[in-house]
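[Automated response] Your request has been received and processed.

Submitted sequence:
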Amino acid sequence: MFNPHQVITFGSALFISTHLSHAQIGKPIKEGQVVSYVESLYVYHADADIDSGGDVGLQTYGIKAGSKIGLANGHSLGFNLSAGLTDYSFSSPTKFGAQAPWDEVQRYSLGLQYNHRLDQTQSLFLMPSVEFAGESGANFGDALIYGGIAGYMKQFSRTLSLGVGGAVYSGLEDTSVFPVIFVYWQFAEAWRVSNPLRPGPSGPAGLEVVYTGFEQWEVSAGGSYRSNRFALDDSGSAEGGFGENEGAVLFMRSTYEFAQHSKLDFYVGTMVGGELTLEDSDADRIASDDFDPSLILAAAYTFSF
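Generated structure:
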């Protein structure tokens, strides 16, 4: 819809349960005005060789929707819902055993966001969320993640906004506290550096360099570190355990704007430093293995109204 506890991103590999775009400085929506959006996402990660043998590939499907309403004095309040499915494919025996360590991983999240505008250039924000991340047979309580992000944004000029904050998340036998950093810097007329806040294979974490000089097109290159952790069912290699897929995603993006409220994103990229980890129900590591870079393709459509 940016491990799930790595800097700037948590949980969903596809639709992050935090919504950093709502934290950006900009013209506030009018009191009583409602702004809504719907996003859909597809990601194809080609088969990658696992170091100890075998390979792994995946496909992801997701949808996210949300709304926010303008409050008095430039404040705003919003909510969002997302759902995603990642279908993993393991071939040949691996270090995790002859049986695939996991297959389909589901994610559902509910998030809220409150933006408190201090003045024309400064705002505070709070974004709590709850997420389910696990296989279909996973214990519901073991697959829940609770937490949120709070922070401060400052607009220094029309071309530069910076923000800092902190995040706390608990779930999946882990609790994480980490800083977050937000950047929007238009360093030339058609160029900027910013967090990749659009739906895509990397989530809204990391940084990208964007060129906006084409009519109706925007192109960029960027990267982020991603870690996706989830609960496992009671019938696989680690009954009631946990799985994790992490690595650095490098990508190139092109975006076509059909109209003022409709956009289509295309991505091509790869993941480097990829690692798969299997843990038991006490979060003790059973096995881990690296996998090679392979092609990532993705497409996302966003409609706002």
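Summary generated for your ticket: Confidence is low (pLDDT under 50) at residues 1-25. The first strand starts at residue 34 and ends at 49.
If you did not submit this request, please reply to this message.
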